[in-house]
Amino acid sequence: CPLPRVRMVATPPAPPTSMAARRGVAVLLSGERRTFDEQARPSIVRHLLCSLASHGYAVHAFDCADGEPLGGLDGCATVVVMRSRGGWQWPTSAGSDRLIQFERNHRCFARVEELEIERNVRFDAVIKSRPDVRINRPLDWGALLGAQASRAVLAKARCWPAGHLPRLSWTYGHTRCGDVPLSDDAFLIIPRRSDASLVFSTFDDELMRTPYPRCNVSFKATVAAECVFTTHLRRRGITFAPTPIDVSIASMNGATSPAAT
Questions:
Q1: What local confidence, expressed as pLDDT, does residue 190 receive?
Q2: Residue 125: exposed, middle, or buried by beta-carbon count in 10 A (0-12, 13-18, 19+)?
Q3: What is the pLDDT of residues 233-261, one digit of tens each?
Q4: Helix orientation angle between 100-119 and 225-235, rounded to the nearest 10 degrees
Q5: Which of 56, 220, 221, 227 could form a disulfide with 215 if both were Cys (CB 3.0 to 4.6 A apart)?
Q6: Are strands 157-161 and 24-31 parallel, antiparallel or unpaired?
Q7: What is the reported pTM?
């Protein structure tokens, strides 16, 4: 007797799963290598990657630094090395090297999105750090990655209206802003994954070329990158939440850039 016909029904793809049974955190190490080996690596491994893992998070570290792979990051995190490191530049940012950092961040986060598709997973939170950042003490991940207001970026303030800086803000000698606090992008915590897609999206063209926005800042600089970044956040509906995170920029001689105390 003839065999019964079998109807072939396409199975829809499964929805993205969480990172196993744990919350997943993508850590973007994006920027120039500089003092990574001398000062930053031990603190990044201890107070960022391993600290997150000890709090029950599944951690992926995305190595998007310039030059050779950073190395020494495995053990507490799954390391993902950027496939292509050349040409860190948008056509619209060619006029200022200070804005290439935002292209690095954008391309690094694109690798996060690629991995999510490849493995059918989705991260819960995203952290971005320069490779030469030194984390001076343990961070309270329960508070930082816990229940937070939607569409928010947690970071230190680069400057403050009238120059009255809160504790642990960046100082560098140009602290006074015009109207609103401005966010530095050296170390960013984005508690909600959906917000990261907006934070690391392509900047509007007029932000990346002259005349660059300045936000009425008092310090003298050709490009106020902090204003460009904070303006981008505002246009995407992202709130900058100034946060006293004890991090600093490591220097070649072992010192760190000053922070307000």
A1: 96
A2: buried
A3: 999 999 999 888 888 887 655 445 444 32
A4: 40
A5: 227
A6: unpaired
A7: 0.84
